[in-house]
Amino acid sequence: MQRRVLLLLAIFVVGAAAIAAATFALLPGAQQRVATTVAIGGPFQLVDQDGRKVTQGDYAGAPFLVFFGFTHCPDVCPTALFDMSQAFEALGPDARKVAGLFITVDPERDTPEVMKNYLGSFHPSIRGLTGSPEEVAAAIKTYRAYAKKVPTQGSDYTMDHTAVVYLMGKDGVFVAPLNLKRPPAEVAADLRKYL
Ligand code: NI
């Protein structure tokens, strides 16, 4: 019994050493690949809640947040948008310099009018973006996000989706996921660093 354990341990150690060696051998190339393929964010073409065509360029020059969701979402989306509103509130007048982009994953139901009505309960710096199913799918892909329609009772459906809040710098480059589960003043102080 003990011999067998030792043998397994030996196999594990040799295996781990081989993996470590392979990792080091691949490191320069692997690093390059990470830099070129794991870009998050980029150009998009959507429509805001006022029916205006918007692109990433419209938000350049200031940091912006990107959050994917949908207006029929029972809890995750309203909670995130509420937390974001609180953080923008804590920013005071500086909130005018930032944008929170709420990109729908449900363009079928989330027309600009529906988005506008829904966002009336949140901070005005939060913009609701929608578009054709193809435009929305392209934006989801650009942010490496995930969204999937899930049928519910009858002909109804809900959406599974990524709940990350992306913090994008003023150059439009992804900085980090933003944690909204903190006191609003703390989030605001974080955002202020990127103004
Ligand atoms: Ni949601």
If you had to describe this structure to a student in words, what would you say it looks like?
It is a single chain. With 195 residues, this protein is an alpha+beta fold. It has two domains: 1-38; 45-192, Glutaredoxin, CATH 3.40.30.10. Helices cover 41% and strands 22% of the residues. A seven-stranded mixed beta sheet has the order 2-1-5-4-3-8-9. A hairpin with a 5-residue loop joins strand 6 (147-151) and strand 7 (157-161). Helix 2 (76-91) crosses helix 5 (184-192). It is globular and about 45 Å long. The N and C termini lie far apart (63 Å). Residues 5-34 have low confidence and may be disordered. Bound molecules: nickel (II) ion (NI).
List the helices and strands and how they pair.
Layout: H1 2-37, E1 45-48, E2 53-55, E3 64-69, H2 76-91, E4 99-104, H3 112-119, E5 126-130, H4 133-142, E6 147-151, E7 157-161, E8 165-168, E9 174-177, H5 184-192
Parallel strand pairs: 3-4, 4-5
Antiparallel strand pairs: 1-2, 1-5, 3-8, 6-7, 8-9
Helix pairs in contact: 2-5
Bound molecules: nickel (II) ion.
